[in-house]
Amino acid sequence: MKYELLAPVGDFRSLRAAVEAGADAVYFGIKGFNMRDAARNFRLRDLKKVKKICGKVKMYLTLNVVVYDWEMGKIEKIIKKAKCYVDSIVCWDFGVIELCRRYNVPFHVSTQASVSNVAAAKFYKKLGAKRIILARELSLKQIKKISKIIDVECFCHGAMCVATSGRCFMSQYVHGLSANRGQCAHLCRRSWKIFDDDGNELKLENSRVMSAKDLCTLPFVEEMKRAGVKSFKIEGRNRSPEYVSVVVGEYRKALDYDESKVGSRKLEEIREGVENLKKVYNRGFSSGFYFGVPTADDFSWSENGEQSERKEFIGKVFKYWPRVGACSVRMNTGRLKVGDEVYLISDSEGIKRAVVKSIELDGKRVGVAKKGQDIGVNFGMKVRSGCEVYLIRSG
């Protein structure tokens, strides 16, 4: 059976990263009408370019925010324009669903609908839904029952929200930013203190009592398959292109896993995969609700993430010489030395990981380059002008 790997894309860099890493489908938003308003997002005029980059990779457009009466005309315009480009609309508002039905556009029911039982699945199937993105609060046992009714999509990796299926009003109450309009200020990730009416303070062992760890299902992808999950969804439209590249790559390997590999070899590959996932942004890992209700151990202690690698902007490529396989880099900041690992990131190329093979300054080989210098660098691959160079650091 073919299982779909669904990747998050918030801009052209992450889009190219997802496609190159092996995603079967991508989901993205149009600016102003999706649950990740802070992401760069795309505009209607970008759809043709997105389609060209995707090729055979499926495109799912998210229209899953709370929608008001005065916005329905804009939503209708988006659906009519997107119809010839996208494979499905991700939505849950009945007004948006009705527009999809009117214009004969396939739709998937968003996790915002909190579908968590067979009766609800049957209801949406009768409405014409092709797929349901199930509520996050379901176990594998519960998912298995619903998967017999309709194709189901489940999150396999990424941030977990402490609120039921992401329906949180905390950000709205404190800052006037609606999480249900894609504007969440992530107050749950902060450190908190508790006081009583008399002003007594309670010291918490973990002051981040609402900051859930990230979901990671890599160790039990096979169990998800057996539960009937057809589409494996990665969270992260606000995440970096290297996050998209690494996470898609690891889950691609897991979904395509050769079942002839057994025992210690399989376990070793899973361990290696999890370690690679730890290199990019994460708050620690949890199995979510798949094996039962999360416990206190499933809340994060992290303030700025627990990733084992971080990237530091170094400079930009302004020319490439194909004859010698080297490029010019303007050092905007920091230091770069031979042997360093870097990310090469651009809208046109996505993201590539490379090693500094050699450095030249004023026609002479050097071991280290510094801020303010224009240098020649051999990365061992073709690099286009305008590409940004980021040094990869441990910890």
Can you describe what's shown?
The protein folds into two domains: 4-298, TIM Barrel; 309-394, Elongation Factor Tu (Ef-tu), domain 3, CATH 2.40.30.10. α1 (12-21) runs parallel beside α9 (241-255), α3 (72-82) packs across α4 and α9 runs antiparallel to α10 (263-277). It has helices spanning 12-21, 47-54, 72-82, 94-102, 118-127, 140-147, 170-175, 221-226, 241-255, 263-277; strands at 4-8, 25-29, 58-62, 88-91, 107-109, 131-133, 152-158, 194-195, 201-202, 214-216, 229-234, 285-286, 309-321, 326-331, 335-337, 341-346, 350-355, 358-361, 364-366, 368-370, 374-378, 388-394. The mean pLDDT is 90. The chain has 395 residues and is an alpha/beta fold.
List the helices and strands and how they pair.
Blueprint: E1 4-8, H1 12-21, E2 25-29, H2 47-54, E3 58-62, H3 72-82, E4 88-91, H4 94-102, E5 107-109, H5 118-127, E6 131-133, H6 140-147, E7 152-158, H7 170-175, E8 194-195, E9 201-202, E10 214-216, H8 221-226, E11 229-234, H9 241-255, H10 263-277, E12 285-286, E13 309-321, E14 326-331, E15 335-337, E16 341-346, E17 350-355, E18 358-361, E19 364-366, E20 368-370, E21 374-378, E22 388-394
Parallel strand pairs: 1-2, 1-11, 2-3, 3-4, 4-5, 5-6, 6-7, 7-11, 10-12
Antiparallel strand pairs: 7-10, 8-9, 13-14, 13-22, 14-21, 15-20, 16-17, 16-22, 18-19, 18-21
